[in-house]
Design goal:
With 368 residues, the protein is of the alpha/beta class. The chain has 14 helices and 13 strands. Helix 4 packs antiparallel against helix 11, helix 6 packs parallel to helix 7 and helix 12 packs parallel to helix 14. It is globular and about 55 Å long. The structure holds pyridoxal-5'-phosphate. Its EC number is 2.6.1.9.
């Protein structure tokens, strides 16, 4: 008996739904034929890339015909100094999404369970489901990861726990004390992945990066990205820091040329541009305050965020509001994919973008 193509597909892939990215400016232009369009949907840096990065990419153009360094030696060396780890503890990926996927590939098979928080970043379940693992979503508390409940959900079958700190799409975070107690309580047969895509934005005394615990917990993996505060979402570079053992396995399944040379030099230049980093953080802090004030003035609630986006409750008409904002040239992020049907997520923009968005939102709300 012959099998149909769908019957040949791996079990985990059957029910998988592809990730829905934020709508792009180009796509909206094609759909509506309007401009200008402001995208506040994917937590990108509104300042554009650093000038130093642009210059570094320019000077690398003659190398386009040769394969990149399969080991990203120069980027790893710089990161290892900066982070006080050794090169063998690092895995460089095509965005941090790739390193998250590598973790799933290294550790997961059918019969394994993966724990993550309800309303946590969607890629954890996508990568885990693709490997055929069983997904265990743990209820959150006030939009925050409930680490006690996540620890209670551990069984003999648990292989990985994903924690986003801060979390996307809620912007909430896990405190130093909670994190430490959690790490101590997790048995060593469970891999803990701390996704720190937004850690640079956090300005809380009680926040601590998982990097602090890397030497103490051999089952811990910390992931980071150049896509957000470094303004390089397009070049796709992220990394994982882990024990040499874990990083070694991840590097075995990684494709040799997963990160382009352009991307590597861009990431190196970005790490060297402290001024851009500070300006980005300052822009974000001011923009966040501006958005929170404006949203409050519209009598809307939001989830307090320590990242570069704000998730606001607009009510049952969220989808209509989203569509109406699109027609005014503002792309934001609907969250129905996360089960948050009355919410929209707005990335913090420049002062002018935030202002324009608030005006557009008011007009849309008034017209309902
Ligand atoms: C944006 C984001 C990432 C980063 O993805 P890249 O592949 O590095 O661009 C990772 N985790 C979370 C929670 C994010 O929001």
């Amino acid at each position: 008996m012959t099998k149909s193509i769908p019957e040949l597909v791996n079990t985990g892939i059957h029910k998988l739904r592809a990730y829905e990215p934020g709508k792009s400016i180009d796509e909206l232009e094609r759909e509506l034929g309007i401009s200008p369009i402001v995208k506040m949907a994917s937590n990108e840096n509104p300042l554009g890339p650093s000038q130093k990065v642009k210059a570094a990419i320019q000077s690398h153009l003659d190398n386009l015909c040769v394969y990149p360094d399969a080991d990203c030696y120069h980027l790893k060396t710089l990161l290892s100094e900066k982070l006080q780890v050794n090169n063998r503890q690092l895995v460089i990926g095509n965005g941090s999404n790739e390193v998250l996927e590598l973790i799933a590939k290294v550790f997961l098979q059918e019969s394994d369970e993966v724990i993550f928080s309800e309303h946590a970043f969607a890629m954890y379940s996508i990568f885990s489901e693709a490997m055929g693992a069983t997904l265990v979503a743990v209820k959150d508390r006030n939009w925050c990861h409930d680490l006690d409940a996540m620890a209670d959900a551990i069984t003999e079958k648990t292989k990985i726990i994903f924690i986003a700190n801060p979390n996307n799409p809620t912007g909430t975070w896990v405190s130093k004390g909670e994190l430490k107690a959690f790490l101590k309580s997790v048995p060593e047969h469970v891999i803990v992945v701390l996704d720190e895509a937004y850690f640079e934005y956090v300005d809380q005394e009680n926040y601590q990066s998982g990097l602090h615990y890397i030497d103490r917990f051999p089952n811990l993996v910390v992931t980071r990205t150049f896509s957000k505060v470094y303004g390089l979402a397009n070049i796709r570079v992220g990394y994982a820091v882990a024990s040499e053992t874990i990083a070694g396995y991840m590097n075995r399944v990684r494709q040799p040329f997963n990160v382009s040379g352009i991307s590597e030099v861009a990431a190196i230049a970005a790490l060297g541009d402290q001024e851009y980093l500070l300006k980005s953080l300052e822009t974000n802090a001011l923009g966040m305050a501006q958005l929170q004030m404006g949203i409050g003035a519209l009598n809307l609630d939001y989830i307090p965020s320590v990242a570069n986006f704000l998730t606001i409750r607009v009510g049952d008409l969220a989808q209509d509001i989203y569509q109406a904002l699109l027609r005014k040239g503002y792309i934001v992020r609907p969250l129905s994919g996360y089960g948050m049907t009355s919410y929209l997520r707005i990335s913090v923009g420049t002062e002018a973008q935030n202002q324009g968005f608030l005006v557009a939102l008011k007009e849309v709300l008034d017209s309902l």
